[in-house]
Specification:
The complex is a heterodimer. Chain A contains 13 helices and two strands. By secondary structure, chain A is mostly helical. Chain A has one domain: MetI-like (MetI-like fold, Orthogonal Bundle). In chain A, strands 1-2 form a two-stranded antiparallel ribbon. In chain A, a hairpin with an 8-residue loop joins β1 and β2. In chain A, α1 packs across α13, α3 packs antiparallel against α10 and α9 packs antiparallel against α10. Chain B contains 13 helices and no strands. The two termini of chain B are 26 Å apart. Chains A and B meet through α1, α4, α5, α6 and α7 of A and α1, α3, α4, α5 and α6 of B.
């Protein structure tokens, strides 16, 4: 846009900036204020209680459990999704027949609506009718199906697997694009020098993808920490809180029990966690840019 | 990389394995949706029904499902159109005008998408309630446009930044005004970016769950994901119908995705890889 049209710039950005300010940043302040008041189903009129909500939250066993669950969930999904996603990207980068089709198919789980994916996996895990138990039983592992989602010792692993299945295609596609940017000449030269494929991976491919990998790790951490649909449809945070993470707990406290103050308290904690992650994201991005320069 | 012959076999086996991991759940979804209600589930699972039938689809396509479908279409398409339009204007300004305040605003807008929707759901619900907007398309469209704008701006910015400014300058020297430049030069050149962004926004809004769950309480206003979630409780273990509904919900986005896939993947990875 030319200098004389600068007034237009402001007209062009105003709608977007206004919407994001009013419907995202303003409610964040609202969450902080909300957390200073106490409401419940029995006492629907908000009462100012200061930091009492935080005292209550931090002292409760629920909070410790949810922090722990969120860590396990986020770490497991991010590591598995990106690890598996990277291996798949390496595979799809080979010259093999049918790769064009594979590159199309790979995104299918990611395109599938989250609630549908969750329902599908709920069904896969069904103790009587599910495909997973059916395979296990016919393979000779016991004669009764396991209730994967109803058992607090397996529920978290089950939701993680479902989320990884849904999410790994995204990582694969991003990594694949980065792999295709690795310089062919450099690879050929290394090959001439007798470097095997593992050494080429370690010394050429990985270093040149460092930034993409780091940024994708932080980005998927953020998305996974915030991911509500999968767990809500699969387990609603149960059994016995074993799969409750911040988003599901906030929803249950707020809309299930009308404990808005406590829900907002959890909300504020998750905003703080995200602010830290976002800072990390920018740090990673900046070191990436510096390395490139 | 051209693999040696011996490793080629192994790689193709792995490729086949990956195919199974991706497709088996889909295959099973379709298979169960075609299973007659009377046909029992067996162990080991029968991968394809003995007498496939479309009866589940006929029952799944009940009036309430049609309502949810219509709601989802209205809300998603409106969101796509509004988001892409606003994002295009904003991204154009953000890339073409260098000003410190503007860059700060852009970072704030793009960062907004990273905060969890669940953390703002209560205040935003109260705002919608106060404005008497619960159970309306408006509340959903407003929320969806807001949450998709940051990503859309981020994606389009990548495209716009790569267009040479010289083109616009030349047009300006020839006497073209800013609107003429925008609509006759920028818009056509951005088409791949616009398509990619539109597909992305569609995929996101078509499946949005949290806002729809919170803002709609009447059957008339629910969207497909929330309606599906209701079906679980209502129909217990009538998985045939549930899977038929799942297929019906998934087909539109998957079809759009396949039709526009090339441009979509290019657009998605351009931002992610180039940063």
């Amino acid at each position: 846009m030319l200098k004389r049209d600068r007034w237009l710039t402001w007209i062009f950005v105003t709608p977007a900036v206004l919407l994001v300010a009013v419907l995202m940043y303003y409610p964040m302040i609202g969450t902080v204020i909300e957390s200073l008041y106490s409401t419940s189903f029995i006492n629907p009129t908000p009462k100012f209680v200061g930091l009492a909500v935080y005292q209550k939250i931090f002292g409760s066993a629920d909070f410790a459990q949810i922090v722990w669950n969120s860590c396990v969930w986020t770490l497991a999904v991010v590591v598995l999704q990106n690890g598996f996603g990277f291996l798949c990207a390496l595979l799809l980068n080979q010259k093999l027949p049918g790769q064009g089709l594979m590159r199309s198919l790979i995104l299918l789980p990611w395109v599938l609506p989250g609630v549908v994916a969750a329902i599908l996996w709920r069904f896969m895990y069904d103790p009587q009718l599910g495909l997973i138990n059916s395979f296990l039983i016919s393979a000779g592992f016991g004669d009764q199906g396991l209730a994967w989602l109803a058992d607090s010792s397996t529920a978290m692993a089950a939701v993680v697997v479902a989320a990884v299945w849904k999410g790994f295609p995204f990582s694969t596609v991003v990594f694949l694009a980065a792999l295709q940017n690795v310089e062919a000449e450099q690879m050929e030269a290394a090959k001439m020098d007798g470097a095997g494929s593992l050494r080429r991976l370690w010394h050429i491919v990985l270093p040149s993808m460092k930034e993409v990998i780091a940024i994708n790790f932080v980005l998927t951490t953020i998305l996974t920490f915030n991911y509500f649909d999968m767990i809500w449809v699969l387990t609603r945070g149960g059994p016995q809180n074993s799969t409750h993470i911040f988003p599901t707990k906030i929803y249950e406290l707020g809309f299930g029990q009308f404990r808005f103050g406590e829900a907002a308290g959890y909300g504020v904690v998750s905003i703080v966690v995200l602010a830290l992650l976002i800072t990390l994201y920018f740090l990673v991005q900046r070191t990436g840019r510096k390395a490139q320069a | 990389m051209t693999p040696s012959k011996s490793s080629r076999f192994l790689l193709m086996a792995l490729q086949l394995g990956l195919c199974v991991i991706i497709l088996l759940p889909f295959f099973w979804m379709v298979s169960v949706s075609l299973k007659p209600a009377a046909e029992p589930f067996a162990i080991p699972a029968r991968l394809w029904p003995e007498n496939p039938t479309f009866e589940n689809y006929l029952t799944a396509f009940r009036p309430e499902f049609r309502t949810y479908f219509l709601n989802s279409v209205v809300v998603s398409l409106s969101t796509v159109v509004i988001t892409v339009t606003l994002a295009l204007f904003a991204a154009y300004s953000f890339t073409r005008t260098q000003m410190r305040l503007l860059s700060l605003l852009m970072v704030l807008v793009i960062v907004a998408q990273m905060f969890p929707a669940s953390a703002i759901i209560i205040p935003i619900y109260k705002m919608m309630k106060a404005a008497d907007l619960l159970n309306t398309y408006t509340s959903l469209i407003l929320a969806y446009v807001t949450v998709t704008l940051p990503v859309a701006i981020w994606m389009l910015r990548g495209f716009l930044a790569r267009l040479p400014v010289a083109l616009e300058e030349a047009a300006a020297i020839d006497g073209a005004g800013p609107f003429k430049i925008f609509f006759l030069i920028i818009l056509p050149l951005c088409k791949p970016g616009i398509v990619a962004t539109a597909v992305f926004v569609l995929i996101v809004t078509w499946q949005e769950f949290l806002f729809a769950l919170s803002f709609t309480s009447t059957k008339e206003m629910r969207t497909l994901p929330v309606g599906m979630n209701d079906f679980i409780g209502q129909y217990g273990i009538r998985y045939g119908e549930l899977m038929a509904s799942s297929v019906l919900i998934s087909v539109p986005v998957i079809a759009v995705f396949f039709l526009l896939q090339r441009q979509f993947v290019a657009g998605l990875t351009a931002g992610a890889v180039k940063g």
